[in-house]
Amino acid sequence: MLTWKDVINFSVKGNPTPDSRLEKTETEWRAQLTPEQFRITRQKGTERPHSGELCSIYDEGQYNCVCCDTPLFDSTIKFDSSSGWPSFTQPIKENAIKYEKDVSFGMVRVEVMCNTCDAHLGHIFPDGPEPSGLRYCINSESMTLVKETA
User: Annotated catalytic, 114?
Assistant: First the structure.
């Protein structure tokens, strides 16, 4: 289980090696994504709180990167943080997420990105529920929910 100390270490000393890498040109990303998905994932944007489709959905399944379809989070670790964005306590795999120090907007935060394609997902904070204490605060537009089939 990842802890805040692990997250800080990744953001300072380097991230875990992803299973694979995917790189595309800006033109290729624009052709694949909606304008809002492109703004958020490729230009580090943020959707308005409580506006994302996945914010209040708690169906069983897996949340994948909208850009490269890499599995990022599982529905079993999603929780209602009342923050206005989908929130998770752990990634599906340790090397699914990339962490970088973010000093934009006059504050210090840790940005989370897809470790396969560098898509901006959101930020992580040390105010989540136990046992990890982590809150991955993720933009709905950066993910797709692949629902479990019975």
Answer: no
